[in-house]
Write a structure and sequence with these properties.
The complex is a heterodimer of chains A (687) and B (115). With 687 residues, chain A is an alpha+beta fold. Chain A contains 20 helices and 21 strands. Chain A folds into 3 domains: 210 residues, no CATH class; 142 residues, no CATH class; 199 residues, no CATH class. The chains are: A alpha+beta (687), B mainly beta (115). Chains A and B meet through strand 8, helix 12, helix 16, helix 18 and helix 19 of A and strand 2, strand 6, strand 7, strand 8 and strand 9 of B.
Chain lengths: 687, 115
Amino acid sequence: MSTQLVALPEFNTNIDDLFERMDPEPQTSVEEQFANSMTDIEFSIFRHKLATIATEGKEVMAKLGVSSALRSEDSGTGIYTACGDMSSAAAGVYYHALSGQLPIKYSLSKWGTDDSVRIEDGDIFFSTDPMYGATHTPDQIAFMPVIVDGTLVGWVSAVAHQAEVGAIEPGLSALASNAWSDGIRLLPQKIGANFELREDLVQSIGNMTRVPDEQILDIKARVAGCTRMVRRLKELATETGLAEFVGAVRRCVDDGRVQVRRRLKEFNDGTYRCTVFIDGVGGDKGLQRIHCAITKKGDQLTVNLEGTSPQSPWSFNAYSSMPVTTLANPFFSYLLSDVPPSVGLLDQIEMKIPDGTCLSASADASVSCSLWPTFLLQAAAHCCTMKMAFDSEHKDKLSATQSANSVGGFGVGVNQHGMMAADLYVDPVNGNGGGARPDGDGVDVFAGIWGNFMDTNDAEQLEIRGPYYKLYSRITRDGGGFGKFRGGSGLDTAYVAHKVPGALSHGTMGFGSRFPTAPGMFGGYAGNTTPGAYILGSNVTELMRAGQWNAPASTGELVDQHLCEGDYKFDYATYPAVDVEDGDVWMMVGAGGGGWGDALERDPQQVVEDLRAGVISEYSASEIYKVAFDAESLVVDAEATEAQRAEARIERKAAGKPYGEFMKEWEQKRPPEDALKYFGEFPGVVA
Amino acid sequence: MTDEASKKVQVAEYLDIDLMTEKWHCNRCGHKLGDAANNYKEGCLIRDRNPEEIHQPIIEGEYTFAPDPEWCRIVECYCPNCGVLIDTEYLPPGHPLTHDIDIDIEALKAKNELE
């Protein structure tokens, strides 16, 4: 007996179709008929059960997986309607779950009617194709149908980032210059049936990477997460009744649509704009602009990206399905953080993206580092939506943006146990500082911009798995954007290669070395910039053995005072993979969130508390915050502080120029030509 | 957030809009900053700052741990009366300033029941 499926239109990969597939499908007759078969209380309990099931699936995946990113919540699980619309999710990273819609809808339209494939109970599907949901090839997705008594009643997915995917470089490939350089790209496809994986296919996928064992184990972890969710959902569907289950799963989506419309009406109509800049493109450096104009009218939002720089010849590009999913974090984690996540919350968004930008790249473009421009878009969209929501009853949900940039690293090679291993050192990336809030500082070492629930790596686990040890972990000094409330600071950390048995390839991923990426809000400053930094042939381990190593308070102190011998190198945050040897040190400075408000309004006592904690420098306390204090006791001199601040305001008025006079001089200026190689027309036109 | 005496609505940390006159005002001192239909920055004092004055370099060279002043400037907008820092923008030199808050005044009036 074949499964009763819903019929979806043929799947195209043009921009408009990709957008439309992120929208909820029209209600089916069963969904419509049984939409309100549960009372409000019954539905609330049902929806909570879905969230619990999604969380259980995510935890199963994390417990069984091996990749550090998978275990540190660069992951997500989703539960979908029979048509593939996300009705519940657990994060990790919400857009991992959200983007699961594309491979599910692709499979329904493509394989559901293909007798050589079909979709049956117990089938296991997998995809790594960025065109169909995987945001880039490492964000691999397993997904399965939920079929009860021959009827498709829903889908589940489990997504997590894989450390090594067989690209032209180990780990992520900044140097990739076309789609065929990005590593394995698997169309949504069936890799198992009857709840069993096809071992030949799984082994083949592993064989496409430098570290097959990890790839294979992590596929199985994702599938285990899916399998657990399928089992739970079948139990739930049997308990509620199939039609009632289908109606309630769909109701999650439609309730989201109601909630977002209600919320949007509370915000002021208008257009809110933010322009941010990324200072590299992958294989080269140069500025690219991400421009975001969000127009809100009634209960509708239009996101216009006109003015965004062209597609680059390297890897800092994204396909057009990405931009809408990146709005998941500002919406799900901030403006609508009190509403259960579903795709319905994004239903009111119309996207306008010109063809050929770095956020709407052609199918043959490399998108290996697709996240970088989309992180910038997320920062820009975050700023726009927070300004939109300022004059509302939801101020408690606002913040400046957390940083988009950072320096993460990866190592691929033979570990101390003689095994090929790959790992991401995601601590500084997952430990970026949070944005400042209207009534408080951002959280130090918070999360990556793409997911508020991510964790930093467990240091001991990393040391067990790789031939290196952690030298230090600190809160980055002066990392958070200064302001009345400061942005949270990121994690400042370093690793030392130790007992490397053979070749260990180390590289980094990041940006924001010349241009910060976490704009402040309302006079707050941006978070810090983050270059790449490493020391070749250091004597750190020898100093430790001799008891002569004094751990630095920061990477800044290490490099400024040359606390160990070695060849100190400074580079862009993404530098090409290098082979490391014992004693080599790589330092990774996390980035801070944006500040909120005028720094001269910051409570002087909070300033000296930050100074005492080492989170800011004396320079910042004196020159940015203009606080007068005793250098030894750190006791604030309130009167002198007020006098310094009054003087600073007078200085501002003397240094500032009227708008017209300022613009006359400003418009004559221009960045150096090497900064504009990938920019497009400067300054060009923005929405 | 409406101040009934002056019909001002606070729409940003340091910005009010007077619904009666449709003007921007500094939220801290009440100074008038120009027509609310235009960019409030047109009523501010503007300053081009070297980012290294705010974000201290740690080392010399191409990558200093601070923004590159040739690629990136900080544009600060002050209230001409009280000197409060209303906005900061990090822009390449010469890049147009952003009209970041462009509120539909008629809709704002309607929301606050002034029509």
